[in-house]
Amino acid sequence: MGASSSTEAETEPLIADSRVERTGQPVNGRVYRVRWLVLTLFSLLALMQGMVWNFWGPIQNSAAQAYGFTKADIAVLVMWGPVGFIPWLLFMWLMDKKGLRSSLLLSAFFMLLGSALRSIPLTDEPLRRWLIHGGHFINGLAGPTTMSAGPFLSTTWFAPDQRATATAVASLFCYLGSAAAFVVGPLVVPASNDTQAGTTLTYSNDSIRDRIQLIMYAELAVIAVLFAAILFYFPTRPPMPPSVAAASERLSYRSSICRLVSNVRFVMIALAFAVPTGVISGWSGVLDMVLSPANVSQVDAGWIGFWSSVGGCVFGVAMARFADSIRGMLKLILVLMLAGASLSSTWFTLTCLSRVTHLPSTAAILYTSCILVGIFINSSVPIFFELFIETVYPVPEGITCGVVTFLSNLVTGLLLFFLTFYCTELSWLNWCLTGSCLFSLILILFFRESYDRLYLDVFVSV
């Protein structure tokens, strides 16, 4: 359909009152080409938020030499992402009352401020460390919007047969940013003793700091461009809604929270989502430490993390597209994904204990099992989001996904909090990953699915 410029209708409610439902008049749905620009800007901002969050984990050895960071320091830097979810209710309220533009602008401003603070090249090391920690905390404040607003964007801008695909793209780009950090960091920032062509190269602290500073400046520049683009043009909503569900009235903010808390089926599936995704977020954030006992280098660990995240994003978009073409199969898709995650995580955990299990422990096996875990769990995120919304409709998408992403980050925060105390032997992290996948699979098997939003779009004329 044709694109349209921003109009005053974009700032008005999609339905002024409930008379549309009472009179039975159809809603004239329409999609606009500008929806792809909106999706692109949102996704790129989510990608940069994920890159900044996962900045230090892939280069922990270099950070230890250049800044004196310990394993506990790296865990705390990763933990600032989940801590940033503490004021998530504020962002969900802002999204519900003012629309996605206001919430995204505030998040982009926090990312810009956080990236600027951590990039200040001070010679005072204690103050520099405080600025780095403060910058990562402020960047974490953007997480509630970038990680949970994807379904809200897809419902507002996309037709029903493209909704799951748009949700997948918007929600998985944050994970793609984490994947990019696994490659950019180790490739640009050398380890203290790097081996190339059989020769060991030793890099000075100043050289390592210069490389780290270069990445920080580059990320700051990209975030500044994205902030300017969103400030210049990012409509709150299209002039006309794309579907009946997008135009229908939703519950109020307070009623939505009460509905979610009292809905047993929602609590059940929210835990099925939050536990494995929260555990793998913390686990992947310190993947270099997890794989160190298996003699996996910093660069190799980065590539493992990269392919597990990228594979999850690609597979997630493909499964979302499949869910768009064959609707009403979300539970079956999740069962298959979580079964694969359970088998892969068990394989990886037992392989890491090869001295006890006597299973072969080769680089190929570690790569394969670890990448499969990331593919199965990360790709389930958009399918979970769509099932959440179908289960609790007409609760607004932003509030629903804000609650579940908060729970996921709460699990991540708890895991990293314990890691600061138990960071010498990390096999317990692998068992947590395996147990979380099995726990989620059991909950999904007993979950009773429903498709209230899909029923409205299919059986009500648009």
Describe the structure.
It is a single chain. This protein has helices at residues 19-23, 34-53, 60-67, 71-83, 88-98, 100-118, 125-140, 143-148, 150-157, 163-188, 205-232, 244-247, 253-262, 264-285, 287-291, 298-325, 330-352, 354-357, 363-392, 397-419, 427-445, 452-459; strands spanning 193-196, 199-202. The chain has 462 residues and is mainly alpha-helical. The chain is built from 22 helices and two strands. Mean pLDDT is 80; it is low at 1-26 and 195-199.
Proportion in β-strands: under 5%
Number of helices: 22
- Please tell me what the overall shape is: globular
The beta-strand count equals 2
**Separation of termini?**
15 Å
Helix content: over 70%
Main sheet: strand order: 1-2
Given the helix and strand composition, which structural class is it? mainly alpha
Largest sheet: 2 strands, antiparallel
Unreliably modeled segments: 1-26, 195-199
The radius of gyration is 22 Å
Series of secondary-structure elements, N-terminal to C-terminal: HHHHHHHHHHEEHHHHHHHHHHHH
The overall pLDDT, averaged over residues, is: 80
